[in-house]
Amino acid sequence: MTGPTARDSGLQGERTALSWSRTCLALAVNGLVVFRAGWESGVGVLTMVGALLVASAVALTIFGNARGRALSGHGRHHDRIPSAAPAVPLVLLTAAALVACGAGIACTLVER
Amino acid sequence: MREPKWREEGEDPDYRFSLANERTFLAWIRTALAILAGGVLLEQFSSRIGPHVIIVVLAIVLGALSAVLAVVSYVRWRANEIAMRHGHRLPLTVALPLLAAVVLAVATTIAVLIAVYEG
């Protein structure tokens, strides 16, 4: 029997890390779409926002990988019971998604 | 940035439930991003259907839905964490009927546009 806070030898951490990668991939795709629209229309701000979104997708992917390692017990604190996600990266991801929404709407409004 | 204050209330839930909650948040964000990409790409690659104004309106509706879902996903993650810390029931969400209704409306409009302006 494992207690409610005992380390789970299952694949919880792996699923969570994969979930982060998939989400960052979706963010990167949106960043590329915005980048392309900015490039084609010559609107420099959109191009920069697109690049920024791709960069934040890369940064959050790195966070997701580090989190996956920590959860699977291969991180630095491998003896510690994994804890819930810190709120900061979730807030950052939500903010990035909102920026992507603004940029996406702007993309549909610029003249091509 | 410090951890939010609600993290100190109640008891830490089983971390597996927290991870499931985190994955649910990520799944909602992905849904929002997929809807956003759908809207933007619809506008950029729809040269053959409908009056362009309607397409732009659809794209903006999808972008706005995406923004609402992104905010709701974080608010809901937070509310779920707090409910689990206090042993309460998980809160209901308006995101599901909202998502279904808007996607139905947009899909129906696109179908009509394709039927009317086909080719």
Automatic annotation (TrEMBL), chain A:
Sequence ranges assigned to domain DUF202 in this UniProt record: 8-65
Membrane topology: Multi-pass membrane protein
Cell compartments where the protein resides: Endomembrane system
Top-level taxon of the source organism: Bacteria
Transmembrane segments: 45-66, 87-106
Keyword Transmembrane helix listed: yes
Stored InterPro entries: DUF202
Family annotation (Pfam families): DUF202
Major localization class: membrane
Keywords from the named record: Membrane, Transmembrane, Transmembrane helix
A single Gene Ontology CC term: endomembrane system
Protein name from the UniProt record: DUF202 domain-containing protein
From TrEMBL, chain B:
A GO CC annotation given for this chain: endomembrane system
Membrane topology: Multi-pass membrane protein
Assigned keywords, A-Z: Membrane, Transmembrane, Transmembrane helix
Regions crossing the membrane: 25-42, 54-75, 96-117
Record has Membrane as a keyword: yes
Subcellular location field: Endomembrane system
Source organism, top-level taxon: Bacteria
InterPro entries in the record: DUF202
Organism: Humibacter ginsenosidimutans
Keyword Transmembrane helix tagged: yes
Pfam family, one: DUF202
Residues covered by the DUF202 domain: 16-81
Name recorded for this polypeptide: DUF202 domain-containing protein
